[in-house]
Design a protein that fits this description.
This protein has eight helices and seven strands, in the order βαααβαβαβαβββαα. The chain is α/β, with parallel strands linked by helices. It has a seven-stranded mixed beta sheet. Strand 2, helix 4 and strand 3 form a beta-alpha-beta unit. Helix 7 crosses helix 8. It starts with a strand and ends with a helix.
Length: 166
Amino acid sequence: MKIKGKTWKFGNDIDTDAIIPARYLNTTDPAALASHCMEDADAQFASTVKPGDIIAAGKNFGCGSSREHAPIAIKASGVSCVVAQSFARIFYRNALNMGLPILECPEGADRIQTGDELEIDLDSGVIENLTRKEKYTAQAIPPFMQKLIKAGGLMEYVREQMSGQE
């Protein structure tokens, strides 16, 4: 599976409160969450992010609370993938459970800048920075996790399995 989009760059330790502030956790509606995505890190993000855009970030992306609202907000905002130097462990799992592709790639996350156009091959983990004419290699998403992403998340995957679809 390939993803192509423009990049938004964030720094280290972007916690779940920066991704979706706690004051908006009174809803689970993806569209409502998306309208406040990254609001405390970049006030313009939610109103200017476009479907297919990609987030690049430093170390420990998604640290803080274990709220599932964070990857839901990112995915619902139209972001197609997050590339970071590293992820908080529970955010990593929540993102995949919600069907949000994420890749750990220290070199790429360090070199990528806001506005760079990327093409990402989730099968191989190759990230091509079309703007800078560079390639980076992340660990590929394992086949089972790719099935979760293609299904739209763990719940949709389970629904498909239970209904006999594949």
